[in-house]
Design a protein that fits this description.
The protein is α/β, with parallel strands linked by helices and 318 residues long. It has 2 domains: 80 residues, no CATH class; 155 residues, Glycogen Phosphorylase B (Rossmann fold), CATH 3.40.50.2000. The chain is 44% helix and 13% strand. It has 14 helices and 10 strands. It is elongated. The two termini are 27 Å apart.
């Protein structure tokens, strides 16, 4: 594993995975060269793809890429210039959702949706907190979540709103809450222990209109937290698979408020909690994700070693 936070990644990976630094491209380049040869190089994001392909003479691996965003490759001018060169040299290209697959330059080799760790049901029907758990960036449309909270008037019925996350819009959102004298709203910044947030949450609201997939939604569903979400993007492939899930139109605070209020009864939240957990257990497990990745690695290089790994992984889960 190359890259990620120098403090958190080694601890998260444990002793069974070698970690090398890669906080900036030059550091990643040095790490890749230091690692030598391997069978498959799995890259995420344009900079990593460029390094992976540019160092193939060193590692001799087939390069597999995962596309995380519903957009053409390359956010920068340099990335857009490199995009055709990258695309021509990939062995396999994976999209994290059907939504992403429809919005990239060409159909991917496969869609492999992310899995989330199985969690016990942390949700309790007595919880009276609406949770926003996301980066506070423009694409997440956190203002619609706040407008939904305002229009729902749940504060008058003893509920509170907790906004967990950081981003460029935090100060603007805090000023809006103050200007509206909006009651019951707390901004916390990042949270290291997401499970604690789920234990205290009564509902999660996810307002992004074009979420590529939505790991926070999947994690909440796994923990049994009822989810209210915008009816767009990857949300339609996660909470949207749950029967009678309360979805609302993009940017529509009134519809978001109605979706929140549709879960006021304990029975409605209990039903959504159980159904959400069931969907995650059936479709979004780590095991299913690993099987999908191993299949793509096998397709990339046809290695009998990878075939044996895939068979062993499936047998272990059975």
């Amino acid at each position: 594993m190359v890259g990620g936070d120098a403090q958190r990644m080694p601890a998260a990976l444990g002793g069974g995975v070698r970690w090398e630094p890669g906080g900036v491209p030059l550091e990643s380049l040095r790490s890749v060269r230091r690692l030598g040869r391997w069978d498959v190089c799995h890259a995420h994001m344009t900079a990593a793809e460029t390094i992976a392909i540019g160092t193939r003479r060193t590692h001799r691996a087939r390069v597999v890429s995962t596309r995380h965003f519903a957009a053409a490759r390359g956010a920068s001018r340099l990335g857009r210039i490199a995009a055709p060169w990258i695309a021509a040299r990939l062995a396999r290209e994976i999209a994290i959702s059907e939504f992403v697959a429809r919005h990239i330059e060409r159909p991917p080799s496969a869609v492999v949706v992310s899995g989330v760790p199985e969690l016990p049901c942390l949700w309790r029907s007595a919880s009276r907190r609406v949770l926003v758990l996301q980066r506070l960036e423009p694409e997440k449309d956190s203002l619609t979540a706040l407008r939904s909270w305002q229009a729902s008037r749940l504060a008058d019925e003893g509920w509170s709103l907790r906004v967990v996350g950081e981003g460029a819009e935090r100060r603007t959102l805090e000023r809006w809450v103050a200007s509206e004298a909006l009651a019951g709203v707390t901004f916390t910044g990042w949270a290291d222990n997401v499970a604690d947030e789920f234990r205290k949450a009564g509902i999660l609201i996810a307002s992004a209109p074009a979420e590529p997939l939505g790991l926070a939604v999947l994690q909440a569903m796994s923990a049994g937290v009822p989810v209210v979400a915008c009816a767009g993007g990857g949300h339609l492939e996660t909470i949207g698979l749950v029967a009678d899930a309360p979805l609302f139109s993009a940017g529509d605070g009134s519809a978001g408020a109605a979706a929140l209020r549709s879960l006021l009864s304990d029975s409605a939240r209990e039903r959504l909690s159980a159904n959400g957990r069931r969907v995650v257990a059936e479709r979004f497990t780590i095991g299913r994700h690993v099987d999908g990745l191993l299949a793509e690695y096998q397709a990339a290089c046809g290695s009998p070693v990878l075939s044996r790994l895939a068979s062993a992984a499936s047998a272990e889960r059975r």
